Structures
1.
Amino acid sequence: MARLFEFQSKKLLKQGGIPVPAGDVAATPEEARRIAERIGKPVVIKIQVWVTGRAGIGGIQFADTPEEAEAKARQLLGMKVKNFVVDRVLVEEKLAIKAEYFVGLVIDDAAKKPLLIFSPAGGTGIEEIARLHPEKIARQTIDVLKGFPEFEARNMLIRVGVEGTILPKLADLLTKLYKVAHSSDARSAEINPLVLTADDNIYAADCHLVVDDYAVYRHPDFGIEIAREFDRPPTELEKIAYRVEEKDYRGTFYFFQMVEQTAGSEKYIGFNGAGGGGSMMSMDAVLNRGFKLANYCDTSGNPPASKVYRAAKVILSQPGIRGYFASGSGVASQEQYHSARGLTKAFYEEKLDIPAVIRLGGNFEEKAIEILQTYLKDIPGVVEGYGRDDSPEFCARRLEELVAKNGGKRYEIRPFGETPVPHKAYVFETVTGRISFDHSKCPGCNTKGCVPACAPKILKLEDGKPVLAITPEEAKKGKCTECLACEIFCRFHEQDAIVILLPIPGLKEYRERILAAKAQT
């Protein structure tokens, strides 16, 4: 899920006709002063972080003058809160609050409908109120086909004792909140507190929306960097990884970085799982062997080889890891040779010099293991492949033994190089990359094995040279599945005439910065 900050959520509420306090977001103390000057009233200054209980940690301050607002903002900006360093504050008018309410909307998985929750006892401690005083909580499921008419909102409010002139105002707000959540593809929306002021107006004093990660692409104006429900800002490497997943829905590539620095005596490894349950068991196995995870990565749902390749390149952009461990479900339904080819291309390009243990349980696991054993036997690091009958515990023990045999060597990242495309090469685009054939080398090829290696059968021979048997447009739309089979066959069995370029935006520059920083130390 993609979490929005308070200022982003309030912008959506305002667009949907829900009143919010006058204000704006500031990144510097001077900006905070200018916003306070525009408001012309006492203000409240709130840190913008994904944590609750901001008031209790001093993250909410009040100021009577613009000068005081600037001083308070200076105190808050740069403040460290859990995994955040505060880089923005919301400066808003201070409200004269007469009453507080709670409003929340979530997806009820059991009912398979949105569930709206309202309580006239808002503010902090709403969970405790729900437990001790359930009569103060109104719940209403919503039929998404019919919407949420105002009379249903009124009836919901009446059940918890709301009456008088505030009733139509709250009913109108509830219907608008549903529309905002629906149009924003929000999985949840919370206004706490929703306040009634001394002049009998209502405002969303605080608000947080969480957007469905599969719908983020429909809302580029939200400014969401990465559709993950983190409790901290995403790292640069996580952003790079997400760009791979963002526009390629063939299988899953989830990357979460545990640490950004792996220095010290700890045995950090790169972790590549496949499927939730199997990945959890595999994580336990390596942790029980004294390893620590530099990252968690999941490549499941039958991803193409190109996606597994990119995942491996991202994982291997973490300097200092001592090994690479890939293990997921022992009965995965995906064709494991895709993963094997993706790892083969990545490990070969990286000249991997740390041990890798790859457990590829599932369909065609024997072929997948054969690919690893055949094509990675001559790289500096040892790569071992295993199947469903080899337990995660056994594979973790093998990694421990190989790391020890390797002297605990740490991985050093390399510049992100790309093989240049030969002049006058035969080239066509794929869904996420580009394939080039150096036809000048083809006369020396004895087998023409790249054509039968292509399972989708999109290649043919023309004058003894491989070319597309389909149109370039069809290849780019997905008829080329990016299985990498033609390149791997040609590289290891024939003339090394095929180059598949699979760009990873931002990774080259990321590695360059790491290498430059290392050179200065």
2.
Amino acid sequence: MHLRKHDLLQMNDEWLKRLPAERLLEVSKRLLDDVKELHDRLNQNPDNSSRPPTSQAPWERASEAEGDQDLATEIDPEEAAAEEKMKSAEAGEEAVKPVVKLPSAPQGTDKRAGKQPGSQGFGRTQKLTVTATCEHRPENCAACALALAADAKSQAYTGWDEIDIAPQVDGTIGLLFSVTRHLLLEVVCSCGHVSRAQSWRAPPDNQWEKVELGEWRLVGPQLAGVLVFLGLRMRLSRARIREGLMELFGLMLSTGVIDETLREAGRASFPLEDVLVADIVQAPQLNVDETSWKESGLLLWLWALVTTHTVLFLIGPRTAEMLENALQDGYHGILISDGYVVYRAWKNRLRCWPHLMRKLRGLAESTDRRVAGVGKEMEGLMQTLMDAIYAARIDPPPEGLPVRYAADIARLRHLCEAHRMDAHPALRSVVREFLYDWDVILRPVAEPHLPLSNNAAEQALRHWVIARYISHGTRSEAGSRAFALLASVIETCRCRKASAWRYLGTVIAAARQGLPLPALPAIPAAA
């Protein structure tokens, strides 16, 4: 049992002096064990544990650490020792200072963020020059159902302006904006009834509450694709997007309109999720990984399912059901993952060796000599097998790697079995992980052509992990769903060497009219 803060607060010099020698030795042992464990924890970094690279402070990175080492060589050793002694003395003085109770954090209120009900609204003040007009006529009489004649008397009864990006002219660069005035006409039928054209609007959807999808929009589909690209791929906030549009193009859009556009784009892309899943389950290899994600303070997980040309992101709980629901009809290819227990349901899978090597590096750097020795030996055996796999891809040995390196594999197995019930928790955990997934881990030894890492999934998540640090996650279920869908489309377009915002523009344009969505960009022929 570890010493807790309650225990440490009772320990001081006077208490230690009163202890008998045998009790003092016992206390010292417990303190030593705790110090070693704490030192090992402090020594953890992305190179010797499963900690992500973003957890490392900027001043701890390699380039700056090397600069600090060069600077340290110019300092006088005696001055450094004196400074260290002074710091130690100051630390000892601070340790005996009384604990000061900090003031409690202010209590939160029930007031919701954003514009409050009943507050004054603001209308659009920027006047734009209309560059084109589009009339919408009803096709049939709403009363008698007869087709309306093209020359029948008509007039506009309402309409809206749409700002969009005009089609690019060959040989030109840059973006050209257009303003189209859409007019809804009312037409007089021969029966005397006046029929009115209506803009198309998607019916309500319980999965997308407060997210409307339809034609009546200020932001055109291609401009909407640009807003999605700026918000997700460029990781800009709504306010930064608004500022950029104003500074670069002189276009004024409110943050509310930008947010509505991004959510609408998510709903428009929703049918593509089934298409992405269908592509993924047919792939021969699937890389899977997950990272934490906050939804209005609720801890969820961002899942990444990555193949060579398709990427699917999902936001939800870290459970087996989450992955099973994504792969509804089952996945029969090779699943590549880390050691999370959920993935063990798939027998045809591979383990990420860099994850294992980092854990062995952590054992090798342990302050416990016995644990460090076991960690170094296991790390050396795994490195030998890894080098042999890379070499076999170029020049396969005639007898096969399992035969040539049978002694190394047997030694690795012996170390795992010998320390399966070890008293050291970190060593016991690592060797049990090896034993649980023994065949999965060593499968590439018999099949050297198989991948050794899960880098594809980790690299796919890296961009969105940075977005999480900036935005602190999402604020609603619809926002999480929209974020995951749009991120999936963007990453899939990037994998297929296609323009993400242009494709999203075609998707939004089709969805606003209730038409079938365009197919995903084709896989490049060179692939």
